[in-house]
Amino acid sequence: MRGRAAVLAAVLATAAGGCDLPAVGGTSGVLRDAGGGAVAVLSWCAGFGRPALIGLYGVGGDNPLMTITREGAAPPGDFLTVPLREPPEGWRADRPLPLLDRYASYEIRVWNESGDGRMTGPVFRPGELRDLVLTERWGDGDAYVRTFAPVDEFRRAAAQTCG
Question: 113 pLDDT exceeds 70?
């Protein structure tokens, strides 16, 4: 288990580094809940602030299929799961989760309160999700490296990326 956590930490550290877009201050993933719905899994570093907006996009799309906005107090700590179908208290979806094609590709994007920090989740197809967190990073061989891990391993590895 510890070996897999170390590999996942390396994956997340690479994912959190060097980008020309707004600062990346954490990592995110996606998993499938017991009802088969997609769940955004977020872990952020202290300098990121707190997540304030979550968008679900079709790959290649500039307009979100739906957005979930934080209306309540900032989430405590540095970890949060947000079911897209039914956001938790303090979060509001701008519309119901659209029917997702199990073979189409989607992406979750997350911004902080100021909009100058963001996290991007892995590209995923609903049909591939399971009860493990899917993350990805750009690998050395010009391809994405995808990793599935239990939530507790994801949390430990993500915490290591923040130092």
Answer: yes
pTM (2 decimals)?
0.81
Instruction: Read off the pLDDT of each residue in 79-89 and give the average, rounded to a whole number.
Output: 95
Query: For strand 117-120 and strand 23-24, is the pairing parallel, antiparallel, or unpaired?
Result: parallel
Q: How far apart are CA 123 and CA 108, in angstroms?
A: 8
Closest CA to 26 of 158, 160, 163: 158
DSSP 59-109: TT-SS-SEEEEE-SSPPSTTEEEEESSSPPTTEEESSPPPPPPTTS-EEEE
Residue type (1 letter), 130: R
SS3 (DSSP) at 159: helix
Whole-angstrom Cα distance, residue 118 to residue 27? 9
